[in-house]
Write a structure and sequence with these properties.
alpha+beta; TATA-Binding Protein; 5-stranded antiparallel β-sheet; 2 helices; 5 strands; globular
Length: 104
């Protein structure tokens, strides 16, 4: 499905999510902010993982499909960094997803 969405709609950026108890906590926080569902069980973060990738899927207002790849890492002081990659049927939706995260 990822490859079926237009490459020109892809938007990528890096974000700091601050201090979290775990990567699982960070994944849950992003899923709650966006209201999207995990794909293929990727929300399950292995215990003591220092990095993880989660895939999310959703439908934006207007029945616009959106897919997200969250690549997360946590350092020894529990600061979490995230690379957010979004593809949607409409580039405006990809940009709005990044705006939501940047203002959260």
């Amino acid at each position: 499905m990822w490859d079926g969405l237009p490459l020109e709609s892809e938007r990528v950026d890096d974000y700091g999510l601050g201090t979290r108890d775990s990567l699982e906590d960070a994944v849950e926080a992003v899923m709650n902010i966006l209201g999207m569902q995990p794909c293929e069980g990727t929300e399950a973060v292995p215990p003591n993982a220092r990095s993880h990738t989660t895939l999310l899927s959703g439908v934006f207002v207007g029945n616009i499909s959106v897919l997200i790849r969250l690549s997360l890492g946590i350092d020894s002081s529990n600061d979490v960094a995230m690379k957010l990659t979004v593809r949607a049927e409409d580039v405006i939706v990809s940009e709005l997803i990044h705006l939501l995260i940047s203002e959260a």
